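Model the whole thing, not chain by chain.
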Amino acid sequence: MSNCKEIRIVDIAKMAGVSVGTVDRVIHNRGRVSAANYTRVMTVLKEVDYRPNMVARSLASKKVYHIVVIIPAYAPGEYWEYISRGVDRAVEDFRQYHLSVTKLYFDQFNEASFESLLRDIKLDEVDGVLLGTLFYDLVCSFSKELDARKIPYVYVDSDIPGERRMAFIGTDSLVGGQIAARILFRNITKEADILMARIVHTGAESTQAKNRLSGFNAYLTSIDYKGCMYRVDLDLSDDRHNYEILDAIFHEHPNIKAAVIFNSKAYIVGEYLKNRNRKDISLVGYDLIEKNAQLLEEGYIEALIDQRPRMQGYMGVKLLCERLILNGEIGNNNLLPIDILIKENYKFSETY
Amino acid sequence: MSNCKEIRIVDIAKMAGVSVGTVDRVIHNRGRVSAANYTRVMTVLKEVDYRPNMVARSLASKKVYHIVVIIPAYAPGEYWEYISRGVDRAVEDFRQYHLSVTKLYFDQFNEASFESLLRDIKLDEVDGVLLGTLFYDLVCSFSKELDARKIPYVYVDSDIPGERRMAFIGTDSLVGGQIAARILFRNITKEADILMARIVHTGAESTQAKNRLSGFNAYLTSIDYKGCMYRVDLDLSDDRHNYEILDAIFHEHPNIKAAVIFNSKAYIVGEYLKNRNRKDISLVGYDLIEKNAQLLEEGYIEALIDQRPRMQGYMGVKLLCERLILNGEIGNNNLLPIDILIKENYKFSETY
DNA sequence: CTGAAAGCGCTTACAG
DNA sequence: CTGAAAGCGCTTACAG
């Protein structure tokens, strides 16, 4: 595969009739090169399709690349923990390239925390950013700031296609919604009613959840769904309230045969079903967080749709690394596989 | 994360009161070191938990590592092509470490071709082996040979736990079988009959397929299955024959509502169903090869169980690389996730 | 604007 | 058995 004789910087220098210093300056666009020499070197570079020896470069270079990772704070076992772990893994794998990664956390239920975090970042020392895209507007304005400074950034979790992010890494939420529907309708008829649970919180509903709902609805339409969808709003921290609501709705609408929840909190409904000892409701949710895994194992959650959070974190850092260090062109859209996890296969999904 | 001041080989030398050459010799066990110096250096090495700078090492080193990949020859779009691509990808990622990978192909339907291939390998120049474990006995004897020469090897596709492979990379076939059953029984009742198709060939049936059948049967038992399984033997290259057999069995047993095939050839049955215009049979198979993907899209295959072949190839080379170059300790069992692919999500599964 | 030289941390002959 | 020295391909001050 690899040619035995790679072309080196001294070879380029010789061919262009200049010194290695000059070649280095044009390669890195450091200026201080005469126009004549610049084009001369450039020509040779193109001609021989010069590819720098990254190993030598990183050994010689003292430059440290600062990557800032901005994600929500998480409790152990939560979704964002896995993204964070993927980041750590990448840092380990690419430490040879002098990466320094700083993680900054905000409160995912508090937009102001995100805002003040962004305000405090000293962008002068930042070479790249990995960004969890929970708050649409703030992400957009911050992106413009990064654009202005030509700092590359990648989005994880969900995409905002309008922005000039170097890449998005995550799954297609619309399809994620379709798949949830598809799985449910293996177990129920198209006349059955469906419960959709949401979590009330102060901020706007996540783009992610909205898109999933759209996908879900699209599927319903495509199969000419005859039943009803009922929506309930649950509270993350008030189980008594939740149980009352759920008792009421199930009692009122006994034809509800399935439930879906478009974020990682399926366990709230799942635990209710477990306590009420109801295995007749097919529940589908998202993300293999620990509480969900437990209920999947016990059969109260039918399936979880997973977004490979570890890989999101890993690839995010990897792409930034490739961009910063190899100056490579990077595909700007890396849709990850959407995994369907059931009782039998979820245990294997930790790999990588 | 990473200490600014990594300890270098000159630091070790100084601490042990020897030269860098001596330190290098003990690190690499090259001999030519007095016992006194050896222990002295070793002690320091332990004490400071020396971790070599791999970048510097690979820049300085002229050693090329030869890895041999022994897999079946494949037609475009087949399972092993993806394993092969994963290998290529790894070679690209790790080229900086002077990898040279040679791929050797045998005929997966002809044990003798594997045997003669093994006989012709000149192991003197081989540093590591990646091995597709199709032929049980030959793999075992070859493994012993590699053991004797202390050449590390990894298995892909299916495991042979008794052997001393450095690692196995692939999925748990037993669970793979359970999952197939689980998916089918979403669509059929436990009274329905099931068709199991096999492909006749000269060699023994693959371990993989046997294990999947066991897992499948275990699931049947667990749900107290009441129906019948009918087995047919199909021929890869004789469609007329296959159609006759399939026509006959479906006619004779109209209660067959599902079909399963424990290798990547589900498309043979799938195409039959398509030609006969039968969407009432739930078909589940393995591996996202092109022909299967097409039928999944069209709805004649219900689901495919995937083994991440690309990742198998990639991780195989990566682990060998880490073992050879970093001398690292490697976990010897890397069970990969078992992916459930349906019409909606299979398109995203190419990533990585 | 330009080039010669030192240095990154390791390996590799080569004297002794 | 041991150490001093050159070299891997690049970057980084530093004179000019």
